[in-house]
Specification:
73% helix, elongated, mainly alpha
Length: 128
């Protein structure tokens, strides 16, 4: 795993030091693979997060903050954590984690939009 690289001469003695270039290169390559997978997940699932954000902003603006609390809790603890962990274990890679994060955004948008279309957020919270 290590090789030696030559540092130079110190008097009559040549000086060499162990190099850890191969493990570092392997680490950088795996980080690069992670960025590719993360970038794919972000580009693919980011529009869903935008829709989710818009719908939950409507809930908050109308005074129905409990809806947003329930959706956020469901999205992070009910969907993202189990999907990310489960797909990460199933796929034996970090790409499963990123896929789980993206799918949690997708599923939460479906739930949030269905709740939005139900129209319960149009009820008045505060009377004049």
């Amino acid at each position: 795993m290590t090789d030696m690289f030559w540092l130079g001469k110190l008097g009559r003695v040549e000086v060499a030091a162990p190099s850890v270039s191969w493990p570092i290169i392997g680490l950088l390559l795996s980080i690069g693979d992670g960025f590719v997978v993360a970038g794919f997940a972000l580009v693919t699932f980011l529009p869903f997060f935008g829709v989710y954000s818009a719908v939950t902003d409507v809930f908050q603006s109308s005074g129905h903050t409990r809806n947003e609390l329930i959706l956020s809790t469901l999205r992070l603890w009910g969907l993202r954590l189990p999907l990310g962990y489960g797909l990460g274990v199933l796929m034996h890679d970090t790409s499963g984690l990123w896929l789980g994060m993206g799918l949690s955004n997708l599923f939460s948008v479906v739930i949030a939009f269905a709740w939005f279309m139900k129209g319960t957020w149009t009820r008045k919270i505060i009377d004049n």
